[in-house]
Amino acid sequence: MSIKSFGITRRLILATTAAMALCTAAWADAPPRVKFATSAGDFVVEVYPDKAPKTVENFLQYVRDKHYDGTVFHRVIENFMVQGGGFDAKYVQKKTRPPVTHEGREALEKGGPRNTVGTLAMARTNDPHSASAQFFINVKDNAFLDPTVIPPGDPVPRFEHRGRVFENTPRANLLNAPELFGYTVFGKVVSGMDVVNQIKVAPTGAGGPFPSDVPKTPITINSATLVK
């Protein structure tokens, strides 16, 4: 091999190595993904630890613990959302860890997604800090579920919410108002939205302890697996 040929080969090797390193770095920086294999088909979600770190880690730990395996979508409303992750096939609620702190506002302030079609959010009770394992997927744009970002100032000079105007309101009063927390969005469906759309139109009725919105034919999460 000539000196010239050797130099070209060496440059090709270095370029290939650099390209592989860039690809590896990009893969490492990509959002984690979870594959849900369900009785209606499979879908994949990606989650955003840079936007809602505690929420994402909480969700991923339930995935690692196989908590979601064997649970059902127990609340399905065609023009709203599909909810699951909390009850087994006999509608017995699964035990959970302590709830996670609400991160909805922080996620929005970091440029996180809102409650739009295909996004993944934590379900909760009326207590904003009560989310544990249950999640829902928005099947329409649900802006009314979005957290409300509070304007700067203390007191806040002017704040309007759903037609009501507040003036010179202590900041803490607004930050702690339950109706302003909304729901923490922490991911979105990146493949298999057609499966989610099949789930949303499932015939529903009463089931277990629920008087309505339960699929008449159970839709089971067979497994939830971290794929990235």
Structural class by helix and strand composition? alpha+beta
* CATH structural fold name of the largest domain: Cyclophilin
Q: What is the H/E order?
A: HEEHEEHEEEEHEHEEE
CATH superfamily of the largest domain: Cyclophilin-like
Count structural domains. 2
Q: Estimate the mean pLDDT confidence.
A: 92
**Low-pLDDT runs:** 23-27
CATH architecture of the largest domain: Beta Barrel
Q: What strand line-up does the widest sheet have?
A: 1-2-9-5-6-4-3-12
Helix content: 25-40%
Question: Whole-number radius of gyration?
Answer: 22 Å
Shape: globular
Proportion in β-strands: 25-35%
First-last Cα distance: 43 Å
Largest sheet: 8 strands, antiparallel, barrel
SS element count, helices: 5
CATH top level label of the largest domain: Mainly Beta
Question: What's the number of extended β-strand segments?
Answer: 12
Can you tag this structure with a few keywords?
globular; Cyclophilin; 228 residues; 12 strands; alpha+beta; two-stranded antiparallel ribbon
Task: Give an overview in words.
- It is a single chain.
- This protein has helices spanning 3-29, 53-64, 104-109, 171-175, 193-200, and strands at residues 33-38, 41-47, 71-77, 81-88, 119-122, 135-138, 156-161, 164-169, 185-191, 204-207, 210-215, 220-226.
- By secondary structure, the protein is an alpha+beta fold.
- Strands 1-2-9-5-6-4-3-12 form an eight-stranded antiparallel β-barrel.
- It starts with a helix and ends with a strand.
Brief overview, please?
The chain has 228 residues and is of the alpha+beta class. Helices cover 25% and strands 32% of the residues. The protein is globular.
